[in-house]
Amino acid sequence: MPTALITGASAGLGAEFARQLARRRADLILVARSADALEALAAELRSAHGVAVEVLTADLAEEAGAELVAARLRDGADPIDLLVNNAGFGLPLQFADNDIDDEVRHLRVHVEASMRLMHAALQTMRGRGGRIINVASVAGFISRSTYSACKSWLIGFSRWANVEYARDGVSVTALCPGFTHTSFHERMGLAVGDEGVPTLMWLNAADVVRAGLRDAALGRAVSVPSLRYKALVALTKVLPSSLTAGVARRGRV
Ligand SMILES: NC(=O)c1ccc[n+]([C@@H]2O[C@H](COP(=O)([O-])OP(=O)(O)OC[C@H]3O[C@@H](n4cnc5c(N)ncnc54)[C@H](OP(=O)(O)O)[C@@H]3O)[C@@H](O)[C@H]2O)c1
User: Fold this and answer.
1) What value does the CA radius of gyration of the chain take, rounded to a whole number of Å?
2) Beta strand spans in 67-106 (E)
3) What lines the ligand 1 site, CB under 6 Å?
4) Domains with residue ranges and CATH for the chain
5) Cα-flanking dihedrals φ and ψ of residue 29, to 5°?
6) pLDDT tens by residue, 37-59
7) Whose CA is nearest to atom 46 of ligand 1?
8) Nearest to 79 by CA among 2, 161, 166, 167
């Protein structure tokens, strides 16, 4: 029976990964800061699917929190088959207007923690095989403040790692959703309508996670859920970056 470790499992896409994987009979390790939300989800999944669920309460912006999770991933006696680097948050203002300490925490959660956890996971996955899903964003294909830069790092690194570690039986997939109904925008203090994004462009978390799990199983380096966002990403490759940056100003994804 496979075991999956999911960061940011207390809400949104992470909780949806946990639900879909539990339905597939995977044992789980759930990571986030909100212990109560994680324990409630763990109890629900144990009782509904009979799977084993561990809870690791950790702040991934702190070195001690990231190391706690990394140590679990390095444990060869009880190895992890799937790592989902999903934890993340957005900042409400543009770079120069945000508190620099908030920007540093943002970089640590999206990039540093993901890198540390991938490094730890590879210690036991190489040779025995495994899967890593890095939740990036379509924002990683355009220019928009540090969020896009972080997601772009995840996409670029996943592309390389997916080729490099394929020979060790490990796939690395950057999952790149567009606007998705979760608590992400609300946590930034925005209501759905505030983003000025047409209803048609909103995805639901279940579809995004299903597409990510399918593309990871196929060994794809990049997964863009839905045809409309695939078309948009194709456009970013041909349109001038000044135009895509202008469009990107409309919303955060
Ligand atoms: N929703 C979208 O439109 C969208 C689009 C593209 C990409 N994404 C990406 O999808 C991922 C998941 O976001 P979501 O939409 O599901 O948002 P969400 O509903 O707000 O969930 C975010 C999760 O990340 C966890 N988290 C945040 N900061 C953390 C920290 N310092 N340490 C540990 N865990 C932390 C939160 O848990 P705690 O608060 O309990 O710690 C929560 O479980 C993010 O990487 C986001 O960038 C989202």
Assistant:
1) 17
2) 82-85
3) 7-14, 32-34, 37, 59-61, 86-89, 109, 135, 137, 177, 179-180, 182-184, 187, 253
4) 3-248 (3.40.50.720)
5) -125, 120
6) 999 999 999 999 999 999 999 99
7) 88
8) 2
